[in-house]
């Protein structure tokens, strides 16, 4: 199955040679997959059922055509994740699903391709970064391999006929164009030619899309085939670290010993983190009286408004939180011995500094979440605020994993845990019925006495239709308006054809 990466245009390949048969089989399978995906995605108005079926075809092709042997657990998990997220785009009708589940399904599909090519296991998912870099480097060679595959597939005998037809077309098409231009002076011929061009427009567009899709898949297969080649582990070692050739005794230079120990002294990095801890400590101390205030404080005269309390430095504080976690992780990289020993340098003092920084970061993150909750209770629930909640949830998970790594000092599985956590987070974000959740929270807020933003709810999809009974108990006219808006949304989604059909799970 590696024909796309190993064929050579200079190798003798008759129509019945192994090279030609292997390249021909590769080309036939990739073409079949490319045509199927092109037909499912061409002019699709939305990523719905069509994308789900296309994703299933690509997943099956990766499991059957790229990996050698039976699929491993990591492949099955990523395949299920990609199909689940693709199904979410068809199950939900909301824009939230398109913004989260659709790109996440594409990313998990790409992860599945790299895992299948490299044979990465469940505990080795941290190697995906290196595999992605290798895939980018292999792209030029993959394009060349993909271009050679059709040439080798036709064999030496048929290759002459192929180039003969190609040369004839290069001469015949312009010549036919000249004659067509001359004969177009006749009105009947001109009208017939115009009708042919108009009728063939969609066919030509479909043909171009199919060829482009198949070519892209062939290049992707060629790149994956290159990733399957065994790597030379010694190729990345500096030349000075390699064994030197033998010379006469006494004239060979002294061998250069590989450096050992951490890249940065523990004391030096402890001082760096100490400064960051001091900054966060001053921030928490300066805002100690307002980190977790309630509605009564914000409604008092002379205090900050809800908007000021939420937005004042919210983005900057969130970025600072992520950078603080990144500082701890970078420190672990710098404090790891170069000789490959698993334990990260640093004793109890270093652990105390790291935990102090992460604790202050946790307090800051909790304050941000508290501010957002107060703002939502005052002004309602939206896509943007739900997205911020999920982002903070992800940062909290990252914070807890980093704390565990600080305590363990030798946890090699942090990168793998981070990768699988990202997949899990994508599944969570893509599986949320965002419109239904936002509608329920806003209706509950209205039942508590707050105004109901009917205009915003009307802009949601039919996924929110489950709250109609509760809205009708509050405001009959608002319920009628929402029902009409959501019926119109359903009609729009159903009028785009089965490939773009979405909202299958709408109540």
List the defining traits of the structure above.
20 helices; flat; 507 residues; mainly alpha
| Largest β-sheet summary | none
Low-confidence stretches: 1-19, 233-244
Give the % helix. over 70%
Query: N- to C-terminal separation?
Result: 46 Å
Beta-strand portion reads under 5%
Q: What does the average pLDDT come to? A: 79
Query: How do the helices and strands follow one another from N- to C-terminus?
Result: HHHHHHHHHHHHHHHHHHHH
According to DSSP, the number of beta strands is: 0
Q: Helix count, per DSSP?
A: 20
Radius of gyration, Cα only, in angstroms? Answer: 31 Å
* Secondary structural class: mainly alpha
Q: Outline, from the CA principal axes?
A: flat
Notes on the structure:
The protein has 20 helices and no strands. The model is unreliable at 1-19 and 233-244 (pLDDT under 50). Helix 4 (73-91) packs antiparallel against helix 5. With 507 residues, it is an all-alpha fold.
């Amino acid at each position: 199955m590696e024909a796309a990466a190993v064929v050579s245009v200079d190798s003798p390949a008759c129509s019945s040679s192994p090279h030609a048969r292997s390249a021909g089989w590769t080309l036939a399978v990739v073409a079949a997959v490319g045509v199927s995906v092109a037909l499912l995605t061409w002019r699709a108005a939305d990523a719905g059922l069509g994308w789900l079926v296309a994703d299933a075809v690509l997943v099956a092709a990766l499991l059957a055509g790229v990996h050698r042997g039976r699929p491993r657990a990591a492949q099955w998990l990523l395949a299920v994740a990609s199909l689940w997220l693709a199904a979410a785009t068809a199950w939900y009708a909301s824009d939230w699903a398109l913004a989260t589940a659709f790109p996440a399904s594409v990313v998990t599909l790409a992860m599945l391709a790299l895992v299948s090519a490299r044979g990465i296991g469940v505990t080795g998912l941290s190697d995906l970064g290196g595999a992605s870099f290798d895939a980018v480097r292999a792209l030029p060679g993959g394009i060349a391999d993909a271009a050679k595959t059709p040439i080798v597939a036709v064999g030496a005998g048929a290759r002459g006929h192929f180039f003969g037809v190609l040369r004839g077309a290069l001469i015949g098409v312009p010549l036919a164009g000249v004659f067509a231009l001359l004969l177009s002076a006749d009105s009947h011929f001109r009208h017939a030619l115009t009708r042919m061009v108009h009728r063939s427009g969609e066919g030509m567009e479909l043909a171009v899309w199919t060829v482009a899709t198949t070519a892209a898949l062939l290049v992707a297969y060629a790149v994956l085939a290159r990733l399957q080649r065994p790597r030379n582990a010694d190729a990345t070692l500096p030349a000075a670290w390699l064994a030197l050739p033998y010379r006469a005794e006494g004239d060979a230079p002294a061998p250069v010993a590989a450096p050992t120990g951490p890249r940065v002294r523990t004391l030096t990095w402890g001082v760096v983190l100490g400064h960051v801890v001091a900054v966060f400590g001053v921030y928490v101390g300066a805002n100690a009286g307002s980190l977790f205030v309630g509605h009564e404080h914000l409604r008092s005269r002379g205090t900050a408004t809800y908007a000021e309390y939420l937005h004042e430095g919210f983005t900057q504080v969130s970025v600072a939180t992520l950078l603080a976690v990144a500082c701890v992780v970078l420190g672990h990289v710098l404090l790891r011995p170069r000789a490959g020993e698993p334990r990260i340098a640093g004793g109890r003092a270093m652990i105390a500094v790291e935990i102090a920084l992460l604790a202050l970061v946790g307090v800051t993150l909790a304050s941000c979440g508290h501010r957002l909750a107060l703002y939502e209770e005052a002004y309602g629930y939206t896509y943007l605020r739900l997205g911020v909640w999920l982002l903070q949830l992800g940062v909290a998970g990252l914070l807890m994993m980093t704390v565990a790594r600080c305590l363990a000092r030798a946890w090699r599985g942090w990168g793998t845990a981070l990768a699988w956590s990202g997949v899990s987070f994508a599944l969570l974000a893509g599986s949320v019925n965002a419109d239904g959740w936002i509608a329920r929270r806003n209706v509950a807020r209205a039942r508590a006495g707050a105004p109901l933003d009917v205009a915003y709810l009307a802009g949601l999809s039919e996924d929110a239709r489950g709250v109609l009974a509760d809205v009708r108990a509050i405001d009959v006219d608002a319920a009628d308006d929402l029902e009409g808006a959501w019926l119109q949304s359903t009609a729009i989604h159903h009028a785009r054809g089965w490939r773009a059909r979405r909202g299958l799970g709408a109540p």
